[in-house]
Amino acid sequence: GAGVSQSPSNKVTEKGKDVELRCDPISGHTALYWYRQRLGQGLEFLIYFQGNSAPDKSGLPSDRFSAERTGESVSTLTIQRTQQEDSAVYLCASSLAGIYEQYFGPGTRLTVT
Amino acid sequence: QKEVEQNSGPLSVPEGAIASLNCTYSDRGSQSFFWYRQYSGKSPELIMFIYSNGDKEDGRFTAQLNKASQYVSLLIRDSQPSDSATYLCAVNNEDSSYKLIFGSGTRLLVRP
Questions:
Q1: Which residues of A85-111 are buried (b: 16+ CB within 10 A; e: fewer)?
Q2: Distance CA B91, CA B93 (A)
Q3: Cβ–Cβ contacts within 10 Å for residue B20, how many?
Q4: Which residues of B touch A47 (CB under 8 A)?
Q5: Which of residues 13 through 52 in chain B touch A, CB cutoff 8 A?
Q6: Residue B91 and residue B94: Cα distance in Å, rounded?
């Protein structure tokens, strides 16, 4: 079946602009996660959605970051007033509820110039 | 600060050898442990998970877990050049069990 999809695959933006990243989870996966991976580093948890429960936003690094999810489908991660330190690969993952095996999408490489 | 530690490598092994990748974690309450493979420029791919002490085998891969020592390892038998990648260890957070804490990864090079 289809895996997790993300768009765009690459995004170059100027400092100060807003960007929106999209994630489409595996069909039937009610849990969705966003991570950030800086060059040469591990993954940094950003936010978790599970069904209609309140999301866990504890990993969002600043109030410039926000994310939404409509039901159990597509999620968007928005970064406002981008800064150079936001440059990273943003990864989305999904899993079945109560199951911790997470499957990742291909990621969006964000470059802030 | 809950942490997952891995040697960054590179770990270099000849083709056909056993590659042994190690990971330690600080959260004594962690219950779920994962190994992801990440090729350069690609996203992580789940290759093994283990929830109980002991060994779990899947093809050429064996995951080993020792909760008392807070240690998890991945063995790759008959290593192939295509196994050359960065291997990420991930451990779930005791307080928020869905939240994974990732190590920075060990780079594996398999020499032909």
A1: ebbbbbbbbbbeeeebebbbbbbbbbe
A2: 7
A3: 15
A4: none
A5: 32, 34, 36, 42-46, 49
A6: 9
Tokens of B83: 């196994």
Nearest by Cα to A3 from A34, A27, A35, A21: A27
**Which residues in chain A are contacts of B88 at CB distance < 8 A?**
42-43
Nearest to A110 by CA among A24, A45, A17, A42: A17
Neighbours of B75 (CB within 10 A): 18
Nearest-Cα distance to chain A for B46, in Å, is 7
CA dist., res. B77 & res. B87, Å (int): 15
Whose tokens are 């451990």? That residue is: B91
Q: Give per-residue pLDDT as tens, B62-105.
A: 999 999 999 999 999 999 999 999 999 999 987 777 889 999 99
Token pair belonging to B12: 């270099």
- Taking the Cβ of residue A1 and every Cβ of chain B, the question of whether any pair is shorter than 8 Å is answered with no
